[in-house]
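Quick one before lunch.
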Amino acid sequence: MTRLLGVIGDPVAHSLSPYIHNHWLRENGIDAVYAALEVKADELSASLASLRAHEAIGLNVTLPHKESVLRLAPTASDTARRLGAANTLVRTPGGQWHAENTDAPGFALTLDYGDINVDAREVFLLGAGGSARAVADVLARRGARLTLCNRTIARAESLALDLAPAARILSLQEGLAQLARASVVINTLSLGHTGAALELPESAGGIFYDISYGKGAAVALAEARRKGWRALDGLGMLVAQASLSFELWFGAAPDLAAAHARARSLLEAAQ
Ligand code: NDP
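Model of the NDP complex:
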């Protein structure tokens, strides 16, 4: 019987995850298919029950469900509990959902692959949403001198309280005005999806890492390159978190470099 996996979210049609995972399923000779499944917020509980009844092996979880699935899954990893969010569900031998978070270790892997050392360096994190929590957790644990910048200050304060108590907190406007002092900027704002621009200061080779990719990151990355920053997008993080999910479901770690190159070609062909 062909088994099911998928990503649940709303919207979800744009997701590259089916392309990434179906390639790995074929490569490993696994009789399963990975689909993008649109699930509205009020359908989440019923959808999880139905996918469980259909013996789905595992799920990725994206906006707006990352926090809610944690409340619905009977068990969760320590990382998912600490972050208050899960992006992966694994079917247990007893047929229940177990919640995991591979966004944080996926982001950590990309720092290693990109040779980005944040220890004792000035790091500005733009945004305080769900993904910023995973990013902040990694940055704080790696000894970054962290400044959190967000439009809604209360959200940045709550993130700091939970995960990065030593972080400095600024409004987004104040943060952008002080950005020249950063060695590394991590942009987790979803603003890029609207095509809106960020005005960045000049930099002599500082790192500007936007965790979005494709059209969602295009405007900010072009501005960063114009101003002398070393600009990176979030495709590496997407592939890394996907490979960690695949490993949780099947125990096999896919070839990250090859998957990254394939996803890059696909993204470039789509632009
Ligand atoms: P959230 O909705 O949880 O957070 C969005 C953030 O953007 C908040 O900080 C919000 O500020 C800010 N923001 C949104 N609109 C504006 C605006 N008009 N002006 C200023 N700030 C704004 O989203 P996520 O954290 O889950 O995702 C953020 C981005 O990261 C998305 O683009 C997503 O695609 C990408 N992502 C990439 C991943 C990867 O693997 N590469 C994984 C996960 C996410 P406020 O708090 O004030 O509302």
